[in-house]
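quick one, two chains, predict together pls
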Amino acid sequence: MAAKTRKAATKPRSVLIVGVGGQGVIMMSKVLALVCQRQGLQVKQSEVHGMAKRGGGVFSHIRYGETVWSPTIPKGEADVLLAMEWAEGLRWLDFLRRDGGAFIADTKRIVPPFAFRSRKYGSQPIYSPEAPREVMEMVGSGFALDATKIATELGESRAANTVLLGVLSTALEFPVEDWQEVIAQNVPAKALEANKLAFEAGRDWADANRSAPMEERLKDLPGRDDRRAAEIAPKTVQFDITGEWCKGCDICVKMCPERCLRLNDEMIVELSDPEACTGCRICEWLCPDFAIRVRRVPALEPVA
Amino acid sequence: MAVAESVDNFEINDYLRLEMMPHFLCPGCGHGIAMRALLWAVHELGIDKNKLAIVSGIGCSGRMGAYVDANTFHVTHGRPLAFATGLALARPDLEVVVITGDGDALAIGGNHLIHACRRNLRMTCLLLNNEVYGMTGGQVSPTTSENRLTTTTPAGNLEPVFDACKLAEAAGAGLVGREVTLQTPTLKDLIKEGLAYPGFAFIEVISDCTEIFGRKNDLGNSPEMILSQKKSMRPDSYGTVVDEPFRPNSLPTGVLARNDRPEYGETYRNFAKSKQGRAK
């Protein structure tokens, strides 16, 4: 009877790891699950990785404790949300416990091709505009770091997930040796050294930043305006045709991906749909008669 | 965005003799695209027009020189490499580019090609391969594919094809590459590599003859012909993927061979210097 009450008293802890295909989300959750097992805890893990090949979202729920019944984390009950990619982290923010749940995120943005709704040169992708500084102010507890940059400086950008594991290890109460051993068993032999360094780098980063007040931690993170300023400067397309040189070979008309060119009655090329032109320059490159010149000039107003 | 800037800065009109334009090439001729790639490469490398020497022979490709605002040299049939050899030896400060065609370099000028490759003198040779003698009415050339119709092979060509890149590699050219005109930026990069190479760089450009060869063989109009180049190329990145059945008769493209040997001009000048004192 006493045992039963003890079980009821210890709620399982929940860690949600999210990212996009190829970043190592599954590997991270495997490491965490094995570390938990080494402590003699029950672990349940549940993942979705079907979209991984297309750079789509991957998530993995890990729940551990004396007894775990459900393998999935209810909304608002994750103790730690670990995000390998910025927008994925925001997508799962609802799952994070509002009273003291830790948000650990790589600020790296992986913008998928379909975020570019407009093919016009200089147009902005449809990607979460929330900057790390705003989100960190919102969640209250956690870290946002450029793990990919830390890993790249160590010479292996693919070890960014291990950097985040290092940060995670400081938030959980498991012995550091267990983490190191499990990581060593789960990474390719040739990447072992890089992953060891990456794990230490993550721990060092967390230790250095843990004691710092929130304002100090937010100092280096980009705000919304910084990020917008860093975007590519909007430009518009200026399309010039030297009609006297055009011989009407039709290459530009047929090769234009936007179908915005045509030959007029005199078999001279003309821009039939200026709105559709994205300034990709295929017509300019393939014109044997140098009759087309595409220039990208600074836009007077933002590109839609 | 260095690439975008270089594209923005490149005004081809700065490199053309505007009074000669428009050029005489037929509508859709791939040689014009090859010319753009060459001038683009020259622009990106920042080569001074006064230091650029273009030597061209006879044929459609030979007319290239007339339109480029640089030091140009239009010479006898098959001999641009021979003239260029003299030029490059006498003026090592010049950037010598030879523009030649399949008939010019492989038929009448075949000997000059192999000996230029053998010497490895610093210059860049662009072989614009359009599979036919276009200017003289469409006679068969050493690179005309088998069974193709030309004015001299009205029932189809029986002769096997010359692989110019293999020939150049075997003859000892320092850098050997091949690219299609469809991939203009890639072609530009290859020409850039050739221009920067300290030795004999041989680049075969797969071009189209739309009006003479394409019409006779029913290969479609200019857009169809240039698109069909995609089927006949096999980039380095394809690696060892089998050609059949996906890319029958495809040719490898990109840098095909690198044969770093002493550059002849340097060797020659050192030799001449060593003999100078003793001559008297």
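The first strand of chain B starts at residue 52 and ends at 56.
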